[in-house]
Amino acid sequence: MTARVAAPEESAGALEETTARTRARRRRVLVNVARVAVAVVFLGAWELATDVNILDPFFFGQPSAIVRQLGDWFQHGTDAGTIWEQIGVTLEEAFLGFGIGLVLGVTCGVAFGRVRLLSQIFGPYIKIMNSIPRIVLGSIFLVWLGLGIESKVALAVVLVFFAVFFNAYQGTREVDRSYMANARILGASRGQVTRQVVLPSAFTWIIASMHISFGFALIGAIVGEFLGAQRGLGLLIQQAQGSFNPNGVFAAMVIIAAVALITEGFIGLLEKKLLAWRPPVTTTGADL
Question: Rg for the chain (alpha carbons), in Å?
């Protein structure tokens, strides 16, 4: 028996692939090291500046004091209960607002994109409502719905709705007309065209809006709690502000950022699963 000798083209291709993987691995390591270095330099400079009184810790806080504040909350809880309870309340409000706003935004966006008469009648009202600073509505919802979870969810819904609505609307209008014409030629009804052609095509736009929408839902929940609540991370920020405790404000911000990043990771995984049919995107632009 004679062993198969690899063709020169195959060897060159394998070598090129190995080189590309090594280069990509080194780049990932370099990027991660640079990210950690940026954080270390920033926090170190902040800590040093407060130690030598360039920055007043009373106004600007101190990284080491923020860590102590977080440790105190997780070990001994807060005045409103355990820190896990506060995180759970805020997450419940944000997820409810996100879910309701997402469903309403997609439904209305697709309907307005498919039915021209609807967009012509309600278009001006959508623009008027979108021009209103939605954070201001938090006070109105507080009066209408009270200090409970309902007012926070309502504010989160309003914030999420418009971000999703405009993406779903634009995604519906951007659908390739030839696909819709082909589906109609094959006998598809208007509803089947919407479900089997329009929605899958608009999904990229809708998923893209989800990345920013959950951040809006968190903002709605936090602002609602800040305006008036009995529990939640927004209440912790309000209490820390009232007692001139910037470390408490920053500690709550750290928790909110961690929650947002974890959720963003889950949305990214969901995007990969739902858009697995999409060809891989190759780009040389900047990544975020």
Answer: 25
